[in-house]
Amino acid sequence: MMDKKEIMWREEWMEGVEEVVEGVPDGVYLCREGKVVEEATVVKGSGEHTNFVFEVVGEMDDEKMGRFNGMFHETEVKGERRRHVATGRRMGYLRELGCDIRYVGEAGPNARANLIKCGGLEMPLIIGGMLKKFYYENLGGFTSMEDCVDYLAERDVAGYGFDGLRDAYYGKVANFLLCSFTGMKLGTPWNGRQEVNGGYIVVKNNGDVVAFHSTIADEFKDFLVRKMRMEGPSHQRHGDMVIYREGDRYLLKLGLQARFVLHQ
């Protein structure tokens, strides 16, 4: 049930919302200024642009690398057998070996600059921490943004060293999600400015609307943190979740993607 304030926002945006709701297929859609943007995914995998590099630390060799890279699971769709990267098995195997992963850097040419503009010099480390929580600690299982914030604060991945760490990391994650929602893409040079004027609308497949005016950005950030989760992209398509060797180092790329879960 919407409260009075939410109803006022809904009425303010109803003209644009009606255009969006008509003929909406199953799913959740994000809308900016009355236009459908994309189903459910705010931070979308984009090959090397959203891949981040980690070093495998521990007893790794070429034989173990081959075993890791050879782990798949099969599904059958309309009689066709398909092979998919077994994310949980691969990361579980690293843990069984006693290996850890350590953040190295960004695979894409623009990600570092965009992240720094979004959240300061420490922002790449924060994204690295979020990816480690999702893939290594949770084996690619359900990981909310709140889970990521707790993990970042517990380990102080940016090395802040002061009290109130959860608030600090919450703010960084929330701002990253807002920047991503309002136009920042890691594969494209970004000027640090939001591309949305007026407000934000989220429309569910049943026509329910959640709308926020741009003057209440903090409340919208809270909404993004509450309603988004980490997600693995198609690893075979985006070229991540494969260990490779550079000299005497074993490296692993992990893909970043984040999705809405409005049913929570």
Structural description of this entry:
With 264 residues, the protein is an alpha+beta fold. The chain contains 9 helices and 13 strands. It has helices at 4-21, 62-69, 87-96, 111-119, 123-137, 145-155, 165-181, 217-227, 235-238; strands at 29-32, 35-39, 41-43, 51-57, 72-77, 80-85, 100-106, 199-203, 209-213, 228-230, 243-246, 249-255, 258-260. It has a 4-stranded antiparallel β-sheet with strand order 2-1-8-9, sandwiched between helices. A hairpin with a 5-residue loop joins strand 8 (199-203) and strand 9 (209-213). Helix 5 (123-137) packs across helix 6 (145-155), helix 6 (145-155) crosses helix 7 (165-181) and helix 7 (165-181) packs across helix 8. The longest helix is centred in the first third of the chain and has 18 residues, at 4-21. The radius of gyration is 20 Å and the shape is globular. The two termini are 15 Å apart. Mean pLDDT is 82; it is low at 1-30 and 32-39.
Please write out the topology.
Layout: H1 4-21, E1 29-32, E2 35-39, E3 41-43, E4 51-57, H2 62-69, E5 72-77, E6 80-85, H3 87-96, E7 100-106, H4 111-119, H5 123-137, H6 145-155, H7 165-181, E8 199-203, E9 209-213, H8 217-227, E10 228-230, H9 235-238, E11 243-246, E12 249-255, E13 258-260
